[in-house]
Every structure is written in C-alpha cells, then in structure tokens.
Amino acid sequence: MRTKRQGLIVYFQHMKNIRQIKKHGHLIHASKKMKYALLYVNQEDIEFKMEKLERLPFVSRVVPSYKPDVRTEYEGAKPDKAKQYDYKMGI
C-alpha cells in the first residue's frame, strides 16, 4: 500500500539552507532564482512539519500543495473529435 503524500512549498532566504530543509522531507525541486523548495511529506505529518519548518529562522513561509483537494474525476467531458474519425479507412 502506498503512503499518502502531499507537497509543501518552502520559501527561504539563502540557497545554503537547503540542507536543513532537506531533513524534513523528500526534496523534489529547489529554485535558485525564486528561492523556494518543493518537498514531499507524509500527509498525516503535514501539520507538524509545517509548524517545524515555519519556526526555522531562514524560512519566509510554508504553503501546502492543494493537489490532494482537487477533483480528478470529470463529469460530462467532451470526447476528442480526432479520435472519432477513422483515418485508416483506405489502408
């Protein structure tokens, strides 16, 4: 069984602090220009990890990812028109 994971976007002040941020979850991406890091943590630990990261002096803010809250089942989706036509009729 897979564990439920959720992303955290951590905004920081200096790139050298990535090492401390990396200890709190699985680091996916870190941007030098925008000064943020994307971490994945277990969903049951997300509140605890957010509090812990916000207490660090070099962290500006921590934002959770909203992907688990977004519905992925769509109702009434229109089919692709190109797939309806059979282009290989003459072959």
Automatic annotation (TrEMBL):
InterPro entries reported in the protein's UniProt record: DUF2129
Localization per Swiss-Prot or TrEMBL: Cytoplasm
Predominant place of localization: cytoplasm
GO CC terms of this entry: cytoplasm
Keywords: Cytoplasm
Annotated family: Belongs to the UPF0298 family.
Protein name according to UniProt: UPF0298 protein GLW00_08300
